[in-house]
Amino acid sequence: MDRTxxxxxxxxxxxxxxxxxxxxxxxxxxxxxxLLGISVSSFRRWRRRFDAEGVKGLADRRLxxxxxxxAPVDEVAEVLGxxxxxxxxxxxxxxxEKLKDKHGIERSYTWTKNTLQAAGKVxxxxxxxxxxRKRPRRPLPGMMLHQDGSMHQWVPGQWWDLIxxxxxxxxxxxxxxxxxxxxxxxxxxxxxxxxEAKGLFCALYADRGSxxxxxxxxxxxxxRDNPTQVGRALIQLGIELIPAxxxxxxxxxxxxxxxxxxxxx
Length: 265
What we know:
- This protein is α/β, with parallel strands linked by helices.
- It contains 9 helices and 5 strands.
- It has 3 domains: 3-58; 73-118; 145-263, Ribonuclease H-like superfamily/Ribonuclease H (Nucleotidyltransferase, domain 5, 2-Layer Sandwich), CATH 3.30.420.
- The protein has helices at residues 3-23, 29-36, 40-53, 73-85, 92-103, 109-118, 184-198, 229-237, 251-263; strands at residues 145-155, 158-167, 173-179, 203-206, 240-243.
- Helix 1 packs antiparallel against helix 2 and helix 2 (29-36) packs across helix 3 (40-53).
């Protein structure tokens, strides 16, 4: 007995138990549907099928049937053959584009990727590290701020660093100014502006620049036991300093800089 069949039997047994309590008046329609994890209209539909056909009416009629959306075997063979003979050195994304533009195969990127992976033509990508996954925003303003600098030709012939401090929850800019070069002084100036205007905050998310962290090895982990001037000041203020380990980790501030670079000049 496969897993799908077992789960179906469990679902039917659970329905019989809850439906029996519903028939005896111990549960209302909404309570019964909530316990089953379905909508009220679905519960009513299940009741009608159960009353008319018994347990057989609750069976999933899709089991044992081939999906109408399943790709034909010859189409799968064609895709695999094209990849092996002509596009073996393409990425999945570029191969998918060629299938659509050159061969008229209108399958999704996900279908193409899964088909190639199932046939062993491409390897599955390793799971992303924690610092590369999308992170939900903090729920309240002041819980975490981002601070970063962006070197850009903000006016013709002039390259400056724009130092921005923004809120993670709302993307509001609390401080933004130009300096010749980002460093300890600009960090303290930005922190001073923010704290004077908004008060203390909980955490600061920043890159691993030398004014934020000592890093024994280039590109390695930060040395939390040897804080910089900025680090010591934040410790005294009770503000947690959080290191960003990749450009992807600073996605919100990078997107903000992209917007400012288009608008400010």
